[in-house]
Specification:
Layout lengths: L4 E7 L3 H19 L4 E4 L4 H7 L5 H9 L2 E6 L15 H10 L4 E7 L12 H4 L3 E7 L7 E9 L2 E7 L4 H17 L3 E6 L5 H14 L6 E6 H10 L6 E4 L1 H12 L9 E8 L5 E7 L16 H13 L4 H16 L2 E2 L10 E2 L2 H14 L3
């Protein structure tokens, strides 16, 4: 029995289509690199609701807690818009994040050379870009109490509470510094310590944690300035460490530096399990894209890159992750494009499955 266990949850919309291409890649690594996986598959989101009446079955949740990594496609679609909030497809994903306690969200912003002209920014600003935003995912203003809409005098008031404990900040900070040790050894912590007490605590705890990582250069920046710097000179950063709210905003800002959501993977990591591997969920940033479902137009690269992140962060196969990323770079350099990547510079349009095949061919060529 393989010690590399992986649960695949294709989900809804284009999820099964892009996941089929990841399956090809997994098969290639098994056949050519001796890297085998014990792969199981189950339902999440609307597909789970159709089968079980809930967006995530308890048995699926239990299985997710046992495997080394979960790889998810996408959830949701107009078919489920009128469902009660408690059983909407997105609740399945949120349950996975909550019950697996995935407190560190990793969102890379990497601009492949072949797509540098595709960004809305000038080529020299984004060419060669490779940064990572680590967002604390399970606390902050999205979860703090009190919250709600209340009557106050003769009008209503909406309340949300930004709340962080030292331990919540510290565990996420350690994830950021550990990540930086694998990369460029630079962490920029972003908060609003000038106007928010939670930001003061964030800065203090992060500075304290930094003492345990003397090789890593720590800097601090107010989050609003960070947003400006991301579009002014993004290559000054390596790892950006920030809270749930600012991370949500800054990661979407960084996403557009690369030109297409179809290119962006993500990872959500938690505490180490008994085998030393972190609890982990990997997923593309894009949604279920119901408007192109079943048409062979979906870009599978974000989902394939999510598997590359799993190779690097769950299975300690950094060299193989790099091999896969370089194979994708080679495909794009040949001008092969799914529809979302076809711009003014042209390219050869190919289908979802053809993109998967092209990646396999490039992987094969990497063997020499």
């Amino acid at each position: 029995m393989s010690t590399n266990t992986l649960l695949i949850l294709p989900g809804d919309g284009i999820g099964p289509e892009v996941m089929a291409e990841v399956r090809k890649v997994i098969g290639w690594f098994d056949e050519n690199r001796g890297l085998s996986f014990d792969v199981s598959e189950d339902l999440v989101g609307g597909a789970a609701y159709d089968a079980h009446g809930v967006p995530l079955h308890d048995d699926t949740m239990a299985r997710a807690q046992e495997v080394d990594a979960v790889l998810l496609g996408a959830v949701g679609g107009p078919k489920y818009d009128d469902l009660d909030f408690s059983v909407k497809p997105e609740r399945g994903l949120l349950r996975l994040r909550k019950e697996m306690d995935l407190y560190s969200n990793l969102r890379p912003a990497q601009c492949f050379d072949a797509l540098a002209d595709f960004s809305s920014l000038k080529k020299d600003i984004v060419a060669g870009l490779d940064i990572m935003i680590l967002r604390e995912l399970t606390s902050g203003v999205y979860f703090g109490e009190p919250r709600g809409i209340f009557e106050e005098g003769n009008e209503r008031v909406g309340i949300n509470t930004q709340r962080y404990t030292e331990s919540e900040i510290e565990r996420a900070a350690r994830s950021a510094f550990e990540l930086a040790m694998r990369r460029g050894k630079k962490v920029c912590s972003m908060e609003k310590a000038n106007v928010m007490e939670s930001g003061i605590l964030w800065r203090e705890v992060t500075t304290r944690v930094a003492k345990d990582y003397p090789e890593v250069e720590l800097s601090h920046m107010y989050a609003d300035n960070g947003a400006m710097q991301l579009v002014r000179a993004p290559k000054q950063f390596d790892v950006i460490f920030t809270d749930n709210l600012f991370g949500d905003i800054l990661s979407d800002c960084a996403a557009m530096l690369t030109g297409s959501l179809g290119m962006l993977p993500s990872a959500s990591l938690g505490a180490p399990m008994e085998n030393g591997r972190p609890k982990a969920l990997y997923e593309p940033v894009h949604g279920s894209a119901p408007d192109i479902t079943g048409q062979g137009k979906a870009n599978p690269i974000a989902c394939v890159l999510s598997f590359a992140m799993a190779l690097r962060y769950s299975f300690d196969q950094g060299d193989e992750a790099t091999r896969l990323e370089q194979a994708i770079e080679a495909v794009l350099a040949k001008g092969l494009r799914t529809g979302d990547l076809l711009g003014a510079e042209g390219g050869s349009p190919i289908s979802t499955s053809e993109m998967g095949d092209a990646i396999i061919e490039a992987l094969q060529e990497s063997l020499g």
